[in-house]
Structure formats: C-alpha cells, structure tokens
Amino acid sequence: MSGAAASHAVARVRVPSRGGEAIRRLPPHAYFVGSAVFHYLGPACAVLLFARVSPLGVAWLRIASAALVFALWRKPWRLLPAIDLQTRRLLVGLAAVFAAMNSCFYLAIDRLPLGTVAAVEFLPVILLAAIGVRGGRNSLALALAVAGVYVLTDVRLASEPIGIAFAFANAALFALYIVLAHRVSRSRTLDRIDGLAAAMLLAAIAITPIGGLPAARAFADPIAIGAGIGVGLASSVIPYVCDQLAMARLPRATYSLLVSLLPATATVIGVIVLAQFPSVRDLLGVGLVVVAVAVHRERQSSSAETSTG
Asked: How far apart are CA 245 and CA 209, in angstroms?
C-alpha cells in the first residue's frame, strides 16, 4: 500500500468517540509496548495452566474468552451485512490464522522455552521487514537476526524436533497475521477494533473442532476456567487491541522490526514467571537480535505514514 493510500485508509478508520482523543494523543510506540508485554505474559501464564488443561484446550479457552469479551464490547455481527465480500474473506482468513497460530504456539511452548519459541517466531517477521525496506544495512540486520535465531535454536533441534516444527509453523502464521491484521487496520470499511472482534468471533468457531473437547474436560474445574479467561484477556484482547492501534499509525515494515524485540521480552518474562533462566548461548542469540534491530534503517517515506491518524 502506497503512502497516499495508507494515509487515506487511516483517515477513514473510525475511532470510538469515548476516549478517542486520549487514544490519538498516545504515540503508536506506546501501544506497541503494551502489546510486547502482554504478548508473552499471557502465554507464560498459559504454560502454568498446562498442568490442568491440555495445550489445545488452553488455546480454545484463550480464543473463546477473547471472542466473548469482544462480542459483548463491540457486537461485531452488526458489521457483516455492511461489508463487501473481499473484506469478509479477509476476516475469515484472519480468523483461520488466529485459530491455527494459537494452536501451534501452545503446542510449541509446551515443549520448548518461551524465549526459544519467540526467537523462532521472529525469523519471518524480520524477513518481512527486510523485504519492506531494502538496503545493505537491512540485509545485515536480517543476517544478524538469522544468526541469533540459529544460536538460540540449534542445540534444541535434536532433542525437540516436534517442538521446533510447531514453533516454525507458528512463526509462519505469525508473519501472516501481521500482513492480514495490517490490512484490517487500514480497511476503509471497518473500524480496526470491530474488524478484530469479528475475526476473533470467527476464530472461536474455527478452533472448536480441535480444541473444544479438550477444553470441555476442564469445565468442572473453576480455577482452570478462570485462569483460561485470564489468559484470553492477557493474550488475545489487550495485545491485539494494542496491535491494531499501533498498526494503524505505523508502516508495516517499521512495526515488523519493533516486533523483533519480542524474543528479549519473552526471555525476561520467562525468567520472571517460569524461572526459565537463559544460558550464555541464549543471551548471545538475543543480543544478536537486538543488534539487528539497531542496525536497521527506516525508509524515508515512513514518517509520512506514521504521522497520519
């Protein structure tokens, strides 16, 4: 999407009048920080919940509870009659990605440290950024990022091939999420949060065949249900809302590179919540990722897009 088209799309996005001025005053990077913290705080709590509910059951609880919150808050079904077929397909695609991505993610963190899964998740994201902003410095950034992820995952590949496979599947889906969610945030016919709410409601339907039965077995456990709802709020409501508010005012390449900080965030949260202390090798891998972000150079036209909205 060109800068002019992006500016026009953002201008057409509706911001709720109540609190809308406060939303516009905050810089988009502030919303990214909120997303970064909760993006892995919720999953860290989900790991603790695996003792009571299987990973696929937790994935269902996460999406279903988030869908319920969005349904009560935004009533997204009111959107569907007014939107065109292409936008409906976009929402269905995003819903399918939500369902598959969360399933793969929880199956991965059930087998691997949170920081490792976050690092693998990072690879296609930085690749998207390098494609969006080409140049020697960004090629170097991509090389450093690949080296960092290799350092973080090479040792564990032999011992946990299934976990690594789920982690890479989650990574590919996460990159697709960024592309689709960015399109939703710039849609001319959707309020960005309403579009997210509609996709989450559809995702609850999509994940039920694979996660509904494992989750149903936990319905007699009030602690598990309450924890699952908490995971949904922390993992799929707060960060995704922050994502939409950030994406609407940041170029996709810039946002993708900011997301590359998530492995460091996941490592810190893994230490605090799960006592997953990184080795020297792990710290080296995360350090390479941080340097990759520092090396990056934004395209000159990005400021025009960022300042809009």
From this structure: 31
Residue 306 token pair: 């960022």
Amino acid letter, 19: G
Instruction: Give the SS3 label for residue 79.
Output: coil
**pTM assigned to the model:** 0.80
Name the CA dihedral angle for 53, 55, 60, 63, rounded to a multiple of 10 degrees: 120
Where do we find the tokens 């999953």?
43
CA distance linking residue 309 with residue 306, whole number of Å: 8
Contact 108, 168 (CB under 8 A): no
Cα distance between residue 214 and residue 211, in whole Å: 6
pLDDT per residue as tens digits for the range 194-249: 888 899 999 999 999 999 999 998 888 999 999 999 999 998 889 878 877 887 78
Structure tokens that stand for 207 in this block? 């994940």
Length of the chain: 309
Torsion of CA 243, 245, 248, 250, to 10 degrees: -70
Strands (DSSP E) contained in 16-91 are none
Instruction: Mention every residue, 6+ apart, whose C-beta is less than 8 A from residue 229.
Output: 61, 65
Report the amino acid identity of residue 154.
D
Task: Name the amino acid, one letter, at 304.
Answer: A
Q: How far apart are CA 110 and CA 133, in angstroms?
A: 35
CA angle centred on 204, ends 42 and 107, rounded to 5° = 50
Tell me the residue ranges of DSSP E strands in 158-305. none
CA distance 92 to 96: 6
| 70 CB-contact burial (10 Å; exposed 0-12 / middle 13-18 / buried 19+) | buried
